[in-house]
Amino acid sequence: MQKQIIECVPNISEGRDEAKIKAIASVVETVEGVKLLDIDPGKATNRTVITFVGEPKPVIEAAFRLIKKASELIDMSKHSGEHPRFGATDVCPLIPISNISMDEIIPYAHELGNRVGNELGIPGYFYESAATQPKRKNLATVRAGEYEKLNEKLVNPDWKPDFGPAEFVKAKTSGVTAIGVRDFLVAYNINLNTTSTRRANAIAFDMREAGRVKRKGDPITGEIENDKDGNPIRIPGKLKAVKGIGWYIEEYGIAQISYNLTDIKITSIHKAFDETLIAAQERGIRVTGSELVGLVPLKAMLDAGKYFLNKQNRSLGVSEDEIIKIAVKSLGLDDLKPFNPKEKIIEYMMEDSSSSPLINLTLTNFAKETAGESPAPGGGSIAAYVGTLGVALGTMVANLSSHKRGWDDKWEYFSDWAEKGQVYKNQLLKLVDEDTNSFNAIMDSFRLPKDNEAQIIARKEAIQKATKYATEIPLKVMQTAFDSMEVMAEMANYGMKSSITDVGVGALCARTAVEGAYLNVRVNANSITDQNFKTDILAKAEDISKKALAKEKEIITVVNSKL
After folding, report:
1. From CA 258, how far away is CA 353, in angstroms rounded?
2. Is 83 a catalytic residue?
3. Architecture in CATH for domain 5-181
4. Which is catalytic among the residues 83, 110, 183, 263?
5. Residue 293 phi/psi, 5° resolution?
6. How far is CA 85 from the centre of its chain?
């Protein structure tokens, strides 16, 4: 069964004292199974965003320890900062990452809140999907009045805490904590060439979904217009699923628009950036760049990079690193300080390099590892890597063709083929390590104990299971390498003639990958006792081998005709 992974992103009300921040964040790492991903302090906001992930139970324990430590080290009666806040651990949202829904996380949020209230005596509220009342779903509503109004709020029957005592005694120093369950939120600030908070706010009100209150005459100072029920009329902003305010950041000497993008499927980072740029220009203000607070999903960065490449009529089928580089430069994410994708993209922070030891080696070290005394990596991994190089060549030709002079009307066609090539390349790269892992699984099964009949039976079953898997992996290499030949075939017929030999080499590599993997299918199948499985997989492998040979001849014929 796949692990359920959740993310916790507590925001603590300390962004200046490095020792305190480190002491609070470090308690997360005292819980086994929890990985601390990011610590992002802000001096002007006097607030730090901490990000960690793991399975639900360990994450809840880590969150509890963090809230406890923050309450011991942060005195809210002495706190000031630009960001709205009402607690030492101001908010503590739980977010689904994999194999778990928001509904499944709600009980964990309630468990955490009850522990905080009962064991620490800290009052608080549940918000977003964890809210116990509809009016408490919105964090801004829950936090209204901030710390300074808590002595009145906590004794108000309408705002009785969801957990902890309804009194200000403990909250005088710790404040209160909001614990929620929400979808992934991106905290995103846009930098302006002005120091005016009022002008930054004006743009924020233009953009955010809640918009602004309608006024008579002057939109800032005019009399508020009410509806027939006496409620203020609002003019909605341009961007859905966006919250925003303007503020001045003394640390940088500029005003920013601070956004919470609550659903990046509705309003993406790049859309928020471009729409804000237009609104700022209309007010005579220039956007100089932007800033991501905390972590961001890989897809959000790839979508942004592809959006800006598309605007330039450039191929989208370039490497992941290049797409992210375009996103960083286009959004100006390195305007205020260096932006390191390896430290800001959540998938990169969660990567376990030990699961892909081969593809993380240099070419020289990969060759040395292969040439060593160990039987792995062997022919199967090399076959997968040769296939990777083959389709990489085909993808290169598609990218070169996409910006060939005089072919401007064809860039999208070649871009589509380059994107297909990248998919095949990534699949084959993963199979480089997967083939070695499958071989190691066979070796592990042979090391199982065989001291009695039950162990002997279990060992035989484990060996057969591992051997079947070790036969399926090279079959997958065969199929993927053969499928990738469609890229070389298309480029042979329609790509740049000056790169025709690259296409040919790519096709030769792909067919070599197929044949190399075929040898591994055959040798591993010899040890399989399940005759139906054995017959079926050998038939599939033979069919792919024949088709790959025919496809290679077809491509090389075209290549030779153009030399």
Report:
1. 34
2. yes
3. 2-Layer Sandwich (3.30)
4. 83
5. -100, 120
6. 27
**Smallest Cα–Cα separation from 197: which of 244, 233, 242?**
244
Closest alpha carbon to 502 in 411, 400, 434, 409: 400
Name residue 92's beta-bridge partners.
179
Task: Transcribe 286-313 into DSSP letters.
Answer: -EEEEEEES-B-HHHHHHHHHHHHHHTT
Q: Record the tokens describing residue 367, joined without a space.
A: 């060759």
d(CA 436, CA 433): 5
pLDDT digits (tens, 9 = 90+) for 63-120: 999 999 999 999 999 999 888 999 999 999 999 988 899 999 999 999 999 999 999 9
Length of the chain: 563
**Neighbour order of strands in the sheet with 254-261:** 242-249, 254-261, 186-192, 287-293
**Are domains 186-350 and 357-561 of this chain identical in fold?**
no
State which fold the 357-561 domain adopts. Four Helix Bundle (Hemerythrin (Met), subunit A) (1.20.120)
From 494, 488, 528, select the one nearest 509 (Cα to Cα): 488
Report the DSSP pairing between strands 177-181 and 89-98. parallel
Distance between CA atoms of residues 429 and 385, nearest Å? 6
pLDDT in tens, 443-480: 999 999 999 999 999 999 999 999 999 999 999 999 99
Q: Which of 303, 433, 435, 483 is catalytic?
A: 435
Chain position carrying tokens 């829950």: 142
Q: Which residues pair with 91 in a beta bridge?
A: 11, 178
Task: Evaluate if pTM is beyond 0.90.
Answer: no
